[in-house]
């Protein structure tokens, strides 16, 4: 890991934190509440959530995306966006299918599609930032 990759990871993680707040905390919060089965004590109240851990989780995913983009030689916003979208889609499709197979959490199958699409957009934004940061300071050919 080099400094540029770590900066890309940091930028992607912060982007994920902010973008996640917009997508999941504002735009889709009502949809998720209406389409998941609620169990006493499963979800923390808004004031009890640990935002530092949310940020840390986003930083970890940012490291994954920045590392992958760096290994793939991605140095553009567009390249990072595509890589982030593909990685995000596959990761969250896997997670949601596993949840659907083993848990009674989703009220319907449509929420899986929405969740995968929302997380794909979220990861694409993070990947775009990672690709952009990895390409900064690059000499033109």
Structure at a glance:
The chain has 141 residues and is mostly helical. The chain is built from five helices and no strands.
Which terms would index this structure?
mainly alpha, 141 residues, 5 helices
Structural class: mainly alpha
Q: What count of structural domains? A: 1
Q: Tally the helices: what do you get?
A: 5
What amount of the residues lies in strands?
A: under 5%
Counting DSSP E segments of at least 2 residues, the number of strands comes to: 0
List the helices and strands in order.
HHHHH
Helix content: over 70%
In words, what does this structure look like?
- With 141 residues, the protein is mainly α.
- The chain has one domain.
- 75% of the residues lie in helices and 0% in strands.
- The protein has 5 helices and no strands.
- The protein has helices at 3-27, 29-35, 51-72, 77-102, 110-135.
- Helix 3 (51-72) packs across helix 5 (110-135).
- The longest helix is centred in the middle third of the chain and has 26 residues, at 77-102.
- It starts with a helix and ends in a 6-residue tail after the last helix.
């Amino acid at each position: 890991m080099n400094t540029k990759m770590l900066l890309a990871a940091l930028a992607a993680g912060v982007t994920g934190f902010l973008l996640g707040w917009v997508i999941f905390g504002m735009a889709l919060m009502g949809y998720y509440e209406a389409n998941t089965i609620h169990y006493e004590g499963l979800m923390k109240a808004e004031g009890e959530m640990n935002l530092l851990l949310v940020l840390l989780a986003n930083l970890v995913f940012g490291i994954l995306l920045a590392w992958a983009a760096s290994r793939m030689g991605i140095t553009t916003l567009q390249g990072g966006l595509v890589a982030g979208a593909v990685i995000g889609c596959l990761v969250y499709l896997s997670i949601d299918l596993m949840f659907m197979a083993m848990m009674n959490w989703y009220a319907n199958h449509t929420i899986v599609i929405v969740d995968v699409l929302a997380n794909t957009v979220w990861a694409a934004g993070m990947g775009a930032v990672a690709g952009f940061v990895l390409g900064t300071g690059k000499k033109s050919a």
